[in-house]
Every structure is written in C-alpha cells, then in structure tokens.
Amino acid sequence: MACERYLNSIHESIDGTIGSIRRAELEMHLDQCEDCRALHDDLKRIHDAAAALPRLDAPDRAWLQIAGRLRQEGRIQPEAKLPVVSRRQYYGWLAAAAAVILAVATAMMLLGPASGPAPQTAQSTPTVTPPAPVAATDSKAIESATTAVTAAQEQFEKAIADLEKVAKANQQVLDPATSTTIDKNLGILDQAIAENRAAVKTDPTSVAARETLFETLRQKVTLLQDTISLINEMRKGNNAAAAQLVNKS
Amino acid sequence: MSGQRGVTMATSKETELDLVERCRRGEVGAFETLYRQHSGRLFSLAVRMLGNPADAEDLLQEIFLSAHRKLESFRGESALGTWLYRLAMNQILDHVRSRAARTSQMTDGLDDATLLADASGHRLADRAIARIDLERALGELPEGCRAAFVLHDVEGLEHREVSEVLGIAEGTSKSQVHKARLRLRGLLRRNV
Is the domain covering B1-106 a CATH 3.30.70.260 domain? Predict the structure, then answer.
C-alpha cells in the first residue's frame, strides 16, 4: 500500500504544482517505494487519459431548437441582413417553384375541376380531384381515365424531378442527421408511390387507388418543398424558421 | 489554464462584453456566436456528468435558454466561460441529484484511507487506458468528485476556477479531484 504522507505530493507532482524541494523529496521516495511509484505512474496515466478525452460536439439540431424556442418566446429578433442565397440560386429555385405550379395546374386541368381552392403559391399542395368513376364495361371510358391518370402522373413526376434536382444539389447545407431523415422519408414515399401506381395499373377505374396514388405524390411534392424551404432558411441564417420547419416535419 | 481547454477564451474582455450586449438586445446572430463558442465544452461536460448524450442534449438546450434569460445579470466580473460553466454545472447537478433521488443513489462518503486501500495492490496494466473504460468508470464516481475531476482533469480548469464554478473551497476541489483519481484507479483495475 502506498504511503499516505506522500499522497498529496504525488497528486501535486501530476498537476505540476509541486515545489522544487518537495519534488526532490518525492523523487527520492519514489526510487525506494515500489507501491508509491506504481500509484504515481497509474494516477499520471489516468490524468493524461482524461486530458486526452475528445471534446464532444452538440448535434446541429440543438441550436435550431434553442433558436426556435427563443423566437417563440419573443426573446430574439431576426437579423436585418440580406439572404445569403445567391441571386442565381434564388431564380433557380423560383423557376422550380413555378414549374411545380404549372405542373400541378396542368395536372388539375387534365383531371377535371378541383374541389379545393386553386394553389396560390409554390407551397400550396395541389388538390386533385380524380376523374369521375366509370363503368367497368365502358372500354372507351377506361382508356380515357387511364390517359388522364397517366398524364397527371407525368406532370407530378416532372415537378418532383425538378424539385429533387434542386434539393439534391443543395442538400449539403443540411446537417447529416436531417439529410438522412429526409432521404429515408423520400424512400418510404417512393415505395408507396410504386405500390399505388401498380394498384392503379391493375384497376384504372378504382377511385380509391387513384386518390391514394395522388395523395402520395402530393406528399412527396410537399416534402421536397419543405426540404427546399429548409435549405433556403439555413442559407439565409434564419435558424429559427428552419427549426420550425424541422419541428413541422 | 493548461492546454487549449479551460474557460480562458481567446477573445478579449471588450469583445466578450460586446457580444453579451448584442445578445441582450436580442440579436440572434450574437447568441449563435456565443453558442458556437461554448456549446462544445458544455455539451462534453454534460455528457460526462450525465453519462447519456440524449439527456445532455436536452439539458444543453435548457442551459442556453437559461443563459439567455440570465445574461442581464452578467457583469463581466468573471470570464463568460466561467459564468456559463457555473450556470451549466448548477443545472447538471440539479438534474443528477433529482435522478439520484429518484433512484435512491447514495453519493460521496469516501475517505482517503479507504480509497488508498481500495486503489492499492496490483497496478494498472501497462496498456493505454481505453477511452470507453475511462468514460464508464467516470460514470461510477460520486457526483461531487466526478464534477471536480471532469472540470480539472478533463476540461483543464485550475482548482481556483473549479472552486468558483462549483461554489466550493479550493482545498475541497483538490481533495475531490484526488479522491476521484484514486477511485478511478480502483475502478479501472477492476475492469482489466
């Protein structure tokens, strides 16, 4: 067992705060006492291992949540600065958003009158009223319904492709965890779209199958729009708004 | 202060006070700067005190929300880092104590003779101390000496600063760190 009277000296030697006289005395003792030398060496290794422990980084979402709560409580003001996003990128996104409006409007025209209000902005999710049900025996009607559904699908897919292109090109702005979650959700929606598309192909006259397909397509458009909004807010440095989008999703 | 850790910031006092003033005015960018400067060390502190990154993340949010509320009372008498450490440690210890109360965990009550006896015998193996073993052993320390050890040996604060953060005497800080080292030696020996 180590000698209790040298214990403080051993700790102070490890901390580098021991005076020269006590250090010389301790060194003489350590030469003669194996237990104290073992204790000194072990405690030094523990001290060095502790000092080498890495600093841990808080996840990026922690700041977004803090900023979101401060904003909710009205304790911070947004900075009066211009968006960081470049004019070129801005117009690129604007074009993608316009493409969505156009595609959605076209899809709605192809499918007949919509039951809901017309979309006013790129953020509005389309309300699609599928074609009226037709009798299974009317082959012309089936053909017509299939054509309308295919055309609407194509318009949705064009809009989705444009949005995906913009989102993918800028996704590096997002933290890896958020990006992974978005990719995972897009994968789930893709699978659902594929299954619903197969169901529509099997029974083109099924209103339920078409509604489900267009609902999943709408969900994908909304998710991509939210992703682009999140990227935009992150680029602007508007973390509170980004936090709200993260919380919303 | 040793190495790059500790509460002494590279920023000057004027810069620090200016940053605090901008935070008080509600500038989100200023508070984000303050967050970026200090969140890493406070998160590390919270993880090592709580032993759980998820709890540490939740607590980190509460620490910074509380810091934002209390910045009005910051007068610059101590470094901003020390002030934040103190605020963080109070919240962390409250959390640890409420958790300990729920699980009826006992703390401290370790004397040097017991620890010396516990730590005597075989020395640690010659191989390097694995980070995971050290982190696990840290989690088994009583809260008082764990706090002092994390601040002093891991974060690199001086005993004077540890005493300021924990609101204890400098001698108590030394004694807690010494106890923690001896206890860790016993725990690590058991793990090898």
Answer: no
pLDDT at residue B113, rounded to an integer? 61
Q: Where are the domains of chain B?
A: 1-106, 114-192
The model's pTM is 0.57
Q: What is the least distance, in Å, from the CA of A57 to any CA of chain B?
A: 5
- Residue A147 has a pLDDT of 73
- B27 with A70: Cβ contact below 8 A: no
Long-range contacts made by residues A82-87, C-beta under 8 angstroms, separation at least 24?
A83/A232, A83/A235, A83/A236, A84/A235, A84/A236, A84/A237, A85/A232, A85/A235, A85/A236
Q: CB–CB of A239 and B129 under 8 A? A: no
pLDDT at B3 over 50: no
Predicted pLDDT at B38:
95
Buried b (16+ CB within 10 A) or exposed e, A174-212: bbeebeeebeeebeebeebbeebbebbeeebbbeebbeb
Instruction: Specify the residue for token string 């000496």.
Output: B145
Judged on CB neighbours under 10 Å (0-12, 13-18, 19+), B102 is exposed
State the CATH class of domain B114-192. mainly alpha
Q: Which two tokens stand for residue B141?
A: 């320390």
Show the low-confidence residues of chain A (pLDDT under 50). Answer: 80-94, 107-137
At A191 the pLDDT is: 74
Alpha-carbon B171 to chain mean position: 17
Asked if B119's CB is within 8 angstroms of A239's CB, the reply is: no
Instruction: Tell me, rounded to whole angstroms, the distance of Cα B119 from its chain centroid.
Output: 24
Higher pLDDT, B73 or B124: B73
CA distance B129 to chain A (A): 7
Give the C-alpha separation, A220 to A157, whole Å.
Answer: 10
Collect all residues with Cβ–Cβ distance below 8 Å to A11 and sequence separation of at least 6.
Answer: A43, B174, B177, B178, B181
Q: Do domains B1-106 and B114-192 have the same CATH topology?
A: no
SS3 B175: helix
H helix and E strand count, chain B: 9, 0
At residue A112, the pLDDT reads 45
Residues in chain A with CB shorter than 8 Å from the CB of B42 are: 58
Task: Please give the average per-residue pLDDT across B57-63, as a whole number.
Answer: 96
B134/A42 CB distance under 8 A? no
pLDDT of residue A189: 79
Which of B31, B123, B156 comes nearest A51 by C-beta?
B156
Cβ(A248)–Cβ(A226) below 8 Å? yes
Place of tokens 């001290």: A47
